[in-house]
From TrEMBL:
InterPro entries associated with the record: EAD1
Lineage: Bacteria, Pseudomonadati, Bacteroidota, Cytophagia, Cytophagales
Domain named Effector-associated: residues: 769-851
Protein name: Effector-associated domain-containing protein
Pfam families: EAD1 (PF19955), GAP1-N1 (PF20012)
C-alpha cells in the first residue's frame, strides 16, 4: 500500500448531560444541525427488554455530507437508569474511498467509556493516513452467511425492512470490515448499521440497512427473517458482486469493468445492474454471433451510462458485435431494436441502421419466407407512433423496403402482377383469371417483376405446375430466388416430366458460378447437373477441392472430370486420403466407378497396403486391374519389410505373387548385391527356394560376416543342399562366405568336410584320412575293389583277400583295413591306390585333395 495524505476525522462524546438527558458533551466540530441529529441517533435506540443488559455496540449512518460511526456503552454513573455514553467519529463521505479498511477507523474509537472525571472540556480532531491503493488478496471461501447478506444487500433500498443479522459482536464487526473492504468507495457511505432489541412492526426510515441482534434476543425475532453469522459453513464466492466485495480475482475484473463504464455508483441497485451487464459482457465471445446477448448488453449499457461520451469503447464494441450478428442470426433482435433510442451511443450506432437495412432486404427476398415476420414488418413500416417505433428505426426500414421494391411491366401484365403482390385472396383471384394459353405464359414470363416476394413466387410456381407452364416457372424462380435456389426448385419440379435433359435447367445453370453448380449437383444428384459439374471440374480441377468421396454424387462428378484430365490427382488437396476413401467405398460395394479405378491402378496409389479394408478390396477389384494393385502393394510391402516397419499379416494373394518367378527374379536382380535385404524379405514372405538361392549365391561377390551367418542358417534350417554346395564353392575362393559355411556344416558328409577341412576350420587326422579314402572309393567304385575297373589289382593289391559273401560296401571297408594294417598285398599302398583312381577319374577334386594329404596315410 502507499500513503498519500492524512485525513482529518472529527470526534465527539455524547452522554448524560446534567446526569439526566442524553446530549453532546464535547465535540471537535461545531455544527448545530449535526449536533441535534447526533443527540437523537446516538442515544439508546429503544427500551431494553426485561433482564437484558447491553454490551458495547457499533452503529453507523450517513447525515448530509458526513459518514458517522460510533460506539456506545451503558453509562452506570448517570443519575438516571438506561443512560449511555457514545464516542462518535465524523468522516466526510467524499473521503471514504480513501479508507480501504474499516478497522483503521474503528481503532480510533475508545476501548472503554470515559468517566465523568475523565471527560475533557474540549476535543480536537483525529488524524488517519489516507491510502490510495491497497493490494487485495483473493479468498477461496467465506462464511456462507456473508454471501447471503451480500445478496440481500444489493437488493435492498429504503422502504424495505432492514437486513437482520444475529451472532457474536466480533463476528458482526468482522462482517462489516470485509464488506467495507470490498465495496466500491462511493457505496461505503450506504453501509448503515445499528442494534435493535425488539422486532419492528413495519419499515421505518429510522432503521439502518443492517440491524445487529444480540444472540440473547434471537428468540424474540422468530417472526422476522434473520441471517445467523455462522462461520463454520463456508462457500466460495461465485457471483461477480460476491467476488468484488470479498476481493476475489474475478472481483478485480468486475471492478475494472465498472471503472470502464465511467460510473459513479450511487446505490446498490446500480451495482446490481453493473453485475447484470458484466455477466452479459463476459458471456459475449468476439467469434460468436449472438444478437440476443449483444442487444441485452446494449440495453444495459444505455440504462447504466446514458451519456454518449462515456463508456465509448465498450458501447462501440458491443454495437459492432450486434451489427455483425444481426444479418446472420439476429432477425428477431433487429425487430426488437425498434424501441431502442440511439441517443446514449456514439456515432457507431449508425452501424445498426446498416445492419437493419440488410435484414429488411433479406426478409423481403428470403428463399424461405416467414409470413409472420413479413406481416409484422409491414405493420412496423406503417406505424407512426414514436413511443413504440423509434424514428431512426422506421426511417431505416422504410428506406430498405423501398429500395427492394421495383416494378416495371406493360399494362395488362402489370395488373396481374400487381394483384399477385397483394393479399392471398387477391393473388389467387388474379391468377385464376389468366387464360390458359401459350401466349399468356410468354407475356407473363417477359413482364415478371424483379422484386417478387417469395410468398408470391410460391403461389405463382404452384399455379405454373398445375398448368404445365415450365417456362414461366423458370422465370419466376429466377427472379425470386438466388441462382442456386432457383435451379434447385426447377429441378425438383421437373422430376415429374421424366426427361433426361431440360433446356430450362441448362439456362438456369448459366447463372451459377462453377462452385455453385458443383455444390447443387452434389446436393440434388441430378444426372444432367452431375454431367455439367463433371465437365466444369474437368476444365477447372480445383473445383474438386471440397469433394467428399463418400458421396456417390461426388464420385460421379469426379469420374466425368477424369475423362478430361486423365490425372487421378488433378484437383485433389489430399490425393492419398481421397483415393483411400474411394477404395474403402469400393470395398463395401458403394463405389462402382471404373474411371477412377483404372487411373488408380496405373499409379502408385494402387498400393493399398495401409488400408484396413485391404482384404476385402482384393475381391472387389476387376480381374484386369487386380495384378497392378497386387504388384504395387507388394512393392510397398517389401519396402516396409526392409525398413523394419512391417508387423501385420499378409494375404495369400500377396504371398502368391511374392513367390512367383516373375517377382523373385526381378527382386533378386534388383538386390543382386544386397543379401541382407533378400534375407529380411524372405523372413517375412518365405519366397526363396533352394534353386533361387543357389543362383543368387553363385552371383554374389561379397557378403558381411553377420549376414553370411544368417544366410548359412537359412540354408541349414531349410536343408537346401544346392545352396549349401554353392556356399562351399564360394567359400573356397572368398573368405566372406565362411561364416555361412560354418552355419550349415552339419549338412556335409565327413568326406566333404575332410577334403575341405581348412574351410570348415578343422585339423585333419590320419583316421579321418583313411575314412575319407574309404568313403570316396566306395562312392566311385560301387561294384567293389575287384569290380569292373579292377582298381585294387591295378594299384598292386591282392584281390584274393575279399569274400564274395560280403557286400560291395563291406569289401571296401575290409580293403581299407587291410591296406592300413598290412595284408592287402605287397605292392599296394594308399598312394598307389589314389594314383590308380586318378587314372580313372583324372578331374576328381576330392582324389586330388587326398593325394595332397598322402602324409596322413603313413602313420
Amino acid at each position: 500500500m502507499s500513503v498519500v495524505s492524512t485525513l482529518q476525522i472529527h470526534q465527539a462524546y455524547f452522554g448524560a448531560v446534567n446526569g439526566t438527558s442524553h446530549g453532546q458533551l464535547v465535540s471537535s466540530l461545531t455544527d448545530t444541525y449535526l449536533r441535534s441529529f447526533l443527540s437523537g441517533i446516538t442515544d439508546r435506540p429503544e427500551a431494553l427488554p426485561t433482564g437484558f443488559e447491553i454490551s458495547p455496540y457499533l452503529s453507523a449512518t450517513t447525515y448530509r455530507s458526513y459518514y458517522i460511526l460510533w460506539r456506545t456503552w451503558p453509562d452506570n454513573e448517570a443519575k438516571r437508569l438506561g443512560m449511555v455514553f457514545t464516542h462518535v467519529l465524523i468522516l466526510p463521505v467524499q473521503d471514504l474511498p480513501r479508507i480501504p479498511e474499516l478497522s483503521s477507523v474503528l481503532s480510533l474509537l475508545l476501548d472503554n467509556p470515559l468517566s465523568v472525571a475523565q471527560q475533557p472540556t474540549s476535543l480536537g480532531p483525529l488524524s488517519l493516513s489516507a491510502i490510495d491503493h491497497q493490494k487485495k488478496e483473493p479468498v477461496s471461501a467465506v462464511p456462507e452467511s456473508w454471501l447471503t447478506i451480500i445478496n440481500q444487500l444489493i437488493d435492498w433500498h429504503p422502504g424495505l425492512l432492514p437486513i437482520f443479522v444475529s451472532g457474536e459482536a466480533g463476528q458482526f464487526q468482522k462482517l462489516l470490515e470485509d464488506l467495507w473492504r470490498g465495496l466500491p468507495g462511493t457505496l461505503r457511505g450506504l453501509l448503515g448499521f445499528g442494534i435493535r432489541f425488539t422486532p419492528p412492526n413495519k419499515p421505518s426510515s429510522a432503521l439502518p440497512m443492517l440491524v445487529y441482534i444480540p444472540v440473547e434476543l434471537e428468540d424474540k425475532w422468530r417472526s422476522k427473517q434473520i441471517t445467523k453469522l455462522d462461520t463454520n459453513l463456508v462457500k466460495a464466492p461465485e457471483a461477480p458482486i460476491e467476488q468484488l466485495i470479498l476481493n476475489g480475482q474475478l472481483g478485480r475484473d468486475f471492478l475494472e469493468f465498472i471503472n470502464n463504464l465511467d460510473l459513479s455508483l450511487e446505490n446498490f441497485r446500480a451495482l446490481n445492474l453493473c453485475q447484470r451487464a458484466y455477466v452479459q459482457f463476459k458471456s459475449l465471445q468476439p467469434s460468436e454471433l449472438d444478437a440476443g446477448k449483444s442487444l441485452a448488453l446494449l440495453r444495459s449499457l444505455r440504462q447504466l451510462q446514458p451519456d454518449p461520451n462515456k463508456a465509448v469503447e465498450i458501447k462501440r464494441s458491443t454495437i459492432k458485435l450486434l451489427a455483425e450478428a444481426l444479418p446472420v442470426v439476429g432477425v428477431k433482435e433487429a425487430m426488437g431494436l425498434r424501441n431502442l433510442p440511439l441517443t446514449a451511443f456514439p456515432p457507431e450506432g449508425q452501424l445498426l441502421g446498416v445492419a437493419l437495412e440488410q435484414i429488411v432486404t433479406d426478409i423481403i427476398k428470403a428463399p424461405k419466407p416467414n409470413e409472420d415476420l413479413q406481416k409484422n414488418l409491414l405493420g412496423y413500416l406503417v406505424d407512426t407512433n414514436a413511443e413504440i417505433i423509434e424514428p431512426w428505426w422506421r426511417q431505416t426500414a422504410l428506406k430498405a423496403f423501398e429500395q427492394s421494391v421495383v416494378q416495371d411491366s406493360i399494362h395488362t401484365a402489370k395488373v396481374i402482377w400487381l394483384g399477385v403482390t397483394q393479399t392471398e385472396t387477391i393473388r389467387d383471384y388474379v391468377l385464376s383469371t389468366v387464360p390458359n394459353t401459350g401466349d399468356w405464359e410468354q407475356i407473363l414470363s417477359k413482364t415478371i417483376p424483379r422484386s417478387l416476394l417469395i410468398i408470391e413466387a410460391d403461389s405463382v410456381t404452384s399455379f405454373c405446375v398445375r398448368r404445365d407452364w415450365w417456362d414461366l416457372f423458370a422465370e419466376t424462380v429466377a427472379v425470386a430466388f438466388k441462382p442456386v435456389e432457383a435451379l434447385r426448385r426447377q429441378v425438383e419440379a421437373e422430376k415429374q416430366l421424366n426427361i433426361s435433359i431440360s433446356p430450362r435447367v441448362g439456362k438456369l445453370v448459366k447463372r451459377l458460378s462453377d462452385s455453385e453448380l458443383v455444390d447443387i449437383a452434389v446436393e440434388l444428384t441430378h444426372n444432367q447437373l452431375l454431367e455439367l459439374a463433371g465437365e466444369v471440374c474437368g476444365r477447372d480441377p480445383k473445383q474438386l477441392l471440397p469433394m467428399d468421396v463418400h458421396m456417390q454424387s461426388w464420385r460421379t462428378i469426379w469420374s466425368v472430370s477424369l475423362t478430361y484430365t486423365n490425372s487421378i490427382t488433378a484437383g485433389l488437396s489430399n490425393p492419398k486420403e481421397a483415393i483411400s476413401t474411394f477404395l474403402t467405398e469400393l470395398a463395401y460395394g458403394r463405389a462402382r466407378d471404373s474411371q477412377p479405378l483404372e487411373l488408380i491402378a496405373a499409379s502408385t496409389y494402387a498400393n493399398i497396403l495401409d488400408l484396413p479394408e485391404r482384404t476385402i478390396i482384393w475381391n472387389r477389384l476387376p480381374p484386369k486391374l487386380l495384378p497392378k494393385f497386387v504388384a504395387t502393394t507388394l512393392d510397398a510391402l517389401v519396402e516396409e519389410i526392409l525398413a523394419g516397419k512391417w508387423t501385420g499379416t499378409i494375404e495369400p494373394i500377396l504371398m502368391e505373387k511374392a513367390r512367383s518367378i516373375e517377382f523373385i527374379g526381378k527382386f533378386l536382380g534388383q538386390k543382386w548385391n544386397e543379401p541382407a535385404a533378400v534375407l529380411s524379405v524372405n523372413d517375412v514372405l518365405h519366397n526363396l527356394s533352394d534353386n533361387y538361392l543357389r543362383d543368387y549365391i553363385n552371383n554374389l561377390s561379397a557378403i558381411n560376416g553377420i549376414i553370411a551367418a544368417r544366410l548359412g542358417k537359412l540354408v541349414y534350417l531349410n536343408n537346401w543342399d544346392s545352396s549349401a554346395r554353392a556356399l562351399l564353392s564360394k567359400a573356397k575362393s572368398n573368405t566372406d562366405f565362411r561364416p555361412a559355411l560354418y552355419e550349415c556344416t552339419s549338412m556335409f558328409n565327413l568326406l566333404t568336410k575332410f577334403i575341405n577341412h581348412q574351410l570348415f576350420g578343422h585339423q585333419a587326422t590320419s583316421i579321418e584320412a583313411w575314412y575319407a579314402l574309404e568313403e570316396l572309393l566306395a562312392d566311385l567304385y560301387e561294384e567293389g575293389p575287384d569290380g569292373e575297373y579292377k582298381i585294387w589289382k591295378k594299384a598292386g593289391g591282392d584281390v584274393t583277400k575279399f569274400s564274395n559273401a560280403q557286400s560291395r560296401r563291406a569289401q571296401w571297408t575290409e580293403a581299407i583295413r587291410l591296406l592300413r594294417y598290412g595284408g592287402g598285398g605287397k605292392k599296394i599302398s594308399a598312394e598307389s591306390l589314389i594314383k590308380a583312381a586318378l587314372d580313372d577319374y583324372k578331374d576328381n577334386s576330392n582324389l586330388k585333395a587326398l593325394a595332397s594329404l598322402k602324409h596322413l596315410f603313413q602313420s
